[in-house]
Amino acid sequence: MNNFSSVTMFFLMGFSDVREIQILNAALFLLIYLAALLGNVLIITLTTKDPRLHMPMYFFLKNLSFLDLCLISITVPKSVANSLTDHNTISFLGCVSQVFFFFLLATTEVSLLTVMSYDRYIAICHPLRYETIMSHGACVQMAASSWASGGLNAILHTASTFSIPVCGSPNVQQFFCDVPQLLSLACSYNIVELVVIGLSLVLDFGCFVFIDISYIHIFSTVLRIPSKEGRSRAFSTCLPHLTVVTLFLFSGFFAYLRPLPKSPSSWDLLVSVFYTIVPPTMNPLIYSLRNKDMKMALKKMLKDCNRPSD
Predict the structure, then answer these.
(1) Where does the chain cross the membrane (predicted)?
(2) Is 161 within the bounds of a domain?
(3) Residue 305 lies in a domain
(4) Is the pLDDT of residue 181 over 90?
(5) Residue 89: beta bridge partners?
(6) Are strands 171-172 and 9-12 parallel, antiparallel or unpaired?
(7) Number of domains comprising the chain
(8) Do 173 and 13 touch, CB atoms closer than 8 A?
(9) What does the pLDDT read at residue 33?
(10) What does the H/E/C string look like for the chain?
C-alpha cells in the first residue's frame, strides 16, 4: 500500500486502441482546440481594444474567455499528444497539475458565471443604480473573489486527493486526471476528499440556485418591456449565459455524483467532454455570434486591419 506520491506515472484511458481512430481523435481534438483558442483570444482582443466594450459585462466576459482558454489547454493538448504518440501516459507532477488547475479554473468559472448573472440582474432590474453598484472597483473585487475561491478549492482537492493510499496499477479511466477516477484507485474511501467534493457540489448547486433566482427576476422584468427590440436585446444576452451555466454545471454534477462503473466505456469519456471541452469551445460562439456589440467590434477591427496605412 503506497501513497500517490510513490507513483511516478499514470496511464490514461484512450478513446480507442485502433491506430486510425487514435489519429482521427487527435485531429478532431486539435481542430476543436484551435477553434477554442481562436474564439477566446478573439473575445479577449475585442474586449480589450474596443472602448465601447469597456463595461462590466465585457470585463467579466474577458475573464471568462481567459478561464476557458486555460481550462481547455490543461487537458486537450496532452490528449492530442498521447493519441499521436500512442503512449497514454502522464507523469505524477503532470497529473497533480491537471487536478489543481482544473479545479482552480472550473471553480473560478462557476463563481464568475454567478457574478455575471448578478451583473445582468442589476443591469436589467435596477438600471438606474447599475453604474453605482457595478463600479470598476466592485467588478475587480468580484473577479478577484472568484479566483480566490477557485484557488482555495483547488488546494483542498489536490491535497486531499494525492494523500490517499493507492492499490493496484495506476490506470486512470479517463483521458485526463479527473478526481473521481483517481479516487477509484484508493485502497479505501477517502473521507476528507469526499467531504471536499460534497462541499464543492453544495456550493455549485447554491450558485446555480442563485443564478436561477436572478434570471426569474430578469425574465419577469424583460417581459414587461414594451419595446420588442428591447426584449430581444435582453434575451440575447441572458439566454446564452443561462445555456452555458446549465451545460457546464449539469455535466459536472452527472460526472461527480453518479457511481463509477466497474468497466469504463466511451460514454464516460463523452460525458467528461461536456464539462471540459464543449463550454470553452461554445462560449465564444454563443457570446459573439448572438451579441450585436461584439459583432460591431469585430467588423470595426477587420475594417481597421484592411485599411491601407498612410
Answers:
(1) 21-45, 57-76, 88-106, 191-213, 234-257, 269-289
(2) yes
(3) no
(4) no
(5) 11
(6) parallel
(7) 1
(8) yes
(9) 94
(10) CEEHHHCCEEEECCCCCCHHHHHHHHHHHHHHHHHHHHHHHHHHHHHHHCHHHCCHHHHHHHHHHHHHHHHHHCCHHHHHHHHHHCCCEEEHHHHHHHHHHHHHHHHHHHHHHHHHHHHHHHHHHCHHHHHHHCCHHHHHHHHHHHHHHHHHHHHHHHHHHCCCEECCCCEECCCCCCHHHHHCCECCCCHHHHHHHHHHHHHHHHHHHHHHHHHHHHHHHHCCCCCHHHHHHHHHHHHHHHHHHHHHHHHHHHHHHCCCCCCCCHHHHHHHHHHHCHHHHHHHHHHHHCCHHHHHHHHHHHHHHHCCCC
Higher pLDDT, 54 or 266: 54
- What's CA 53's distance to the chain center, in Å? 22
In-domain check, residue 142: yes
Domain-embedded: residue 184: yes
Residue ranges making up the domain that contains 68: 2-297
Does 264 have pLDDT greater than 70? no
CA angle 59, 61, 64 (to 5 degrees): 115
CATH number, domain containing residue 291: 1.20.1070.10
